[in-house]
Amino acid sequence: MKSKLLKNKIIKWSKELGFDGVGFTDIDLKEDETHLINWLENKFHGEMHFMEKHGTKRSHPEQLMPGTVKVISFRMNYLNKNTFDSKKVLKNRNLAFVSRYALGKDYHNEMRNRLHLIAKKINNEIDNFKYRAFVDSAPVLEKAIAQKAGLGWIGKNTLLINKDSGSYFFLGEIYTNIDFEIDSKEKNYCGDCNECINICPTKAIIAPNVLDAKKCIAYLTIEFKGSIPIQYRESIGNRIFGCDDCQIVCPWNRFSKETKIQEFSHKNKLDSSSLLSLFKWTEEEFKINTQNTPINRISYFQWLRNIIIGLGNSEKNTKVVKVLEEKKLKINNPILEEHLNWAIKKQNTNLNTF
Ligand code: SF4
To answer: Can you give the pTM of this predicted structure?
Structure first.
């Protein structure tokens, strides 16, 4: 079968399976490899040591799957129209903000299963098809690949942005030995805009397209396992899992589209729960209520640590101080104790107006 015909079929199957975009590219990632090397040399990856493992596999798809000549990149929207407005949650300091990608069912399996279904269909059409499917699961330069495949451009906030759909979407890839015709790289449409750089609460975007992850709230609340540096705690505000500020402010997100995937709708009111109600969850409840969501990636310790910071930043309230004091008596963890002391002190200095 001619690869052009097969390409059209893949585009059709991907739509049927709920994907919102697909593009094809080669495996030359030299430009992005240089960017990655510089980023790692500057230690902007913090404790994400997995970023420095795997040698050059990340920027050389043929090393990850020998025989790879082309990559198919897929995009899937995750916003759900029933989700409570992000700006309202961020404004109400008594509510907990969870990054919108993490509210529903974990996307890894949802997307990977669909990629395997597409691969199965390809396999039915041609002989000697070889592939590997990835969704955030291996050393893959997914944004660079998607950009080359025409699915968007890497914005100054380091996220992939699509002209028609903004940036609220997941990416997945199929590495393949089929020599598809490639698509053209998307142009960068950031222009003079610097909204994401200006809004970032911890000034983690230190230059266009350069993120110092050590300062990023998504990194601090999800990847980082230790004591959150004091200089970032106030800026974290009520963000208990990730941060969407650089997306919320991005003008291209006026064009963001709703997901077709029901499973991405929010679970357990995590889009607008109060900090106090989430703080009451036992470890067991935390595990049950966040099961099969991306939140499950963090530990109960990180969950409590992040909420304690949120409570410290919440409106001045004697009930909050009482709950924090009570927790101090029950907890036997020096890092959490220190965060509790910080939050109690912060509560006592908060004004009642936000
Ligand atoms: S906010 Fe502006 S500068 Fe930042 S990614 Fe969006 S368009 Fe680019």
So the answer is: 0.94
* Ligand 1 pocket: which of 154, 168, 186, 196 to mutate (most atoms within 8 A of CB): 196
185-236: per-residue pLDDT in tens? 999 999 999 999 999 999 999 999 999 999 999 999 999 999 999 999 999 9
Domain ranges within the chain, ordered by starting residue: 3-84+102-176, 195-349
153 within ligand 1 shell (Cβ under 6 A) = no
SS3 99: coil
Record the tokens describing residue 182, joined without a space: 């490639």
CB distance 91 to 126 below 8 Å: no
CA-CA distances (angstroms) from residue 199 to 24, 90, 168, 191, 245?
34, 13, 18, 17, 7
* Residue 246 CA to ligand 1 centre (angstroms): 8
Structural tokens at position 64: 């990850």
Count the alpha carbons within 13 Å of 60 in the hemisphere toward its beta carbon: 8
Would you state the structure tokens that stand for residue 334, as one six-digit string?
């020096």
Reply yes or no on whether 136 is catalytic. Answer: yes
Alpha helices in the chain (DSSP H): 3-16, 30-41, 61-64, 86-91, 107-125, 142-148, 195-199, 217-218, 230-236, 245-248, 275-279, 283-289, 300-313, 318-330, 334-349
